[in-house]
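Q: What would this chain look like folded?
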Amino acid sequence: MPYINCVTSQKLTEEEKERIKESLGKLIEVFPGKSEQWLYVGFRDGESLYFRGQKMEKGAIVEVKLLGNASRACKDEFTAKVCDLLNEEISVPGNSTYVTFQEYAAGNWGWNGGLF
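A: My prediction, written as structure tokens:
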């Protein structure tokens, strides 16, 4: 039950969102037991993002929420691949991209009227 929220400073076209969403569906498999089948992806584009006191023309924050725990190695690999993806697709450099992870126990994630 992963959820990925991709926040970008620039507006994205529907085509860019679709390509990024498709790529995230493949990248989520870095985490054992995770797949596109259960992946939620959200976009908040055109946001005002500031880093070091300066408005970012090209910046991104990717928030990843996972049911269960993931190893540091998996998170590191995912971070590298997401930075590459955003650089390739929308020209956001890795040094302008943050990736954060939140891990939830089954009792803290609900779906379909109940908790996992």
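Residues 72-90 form the longest helix (19 residues).
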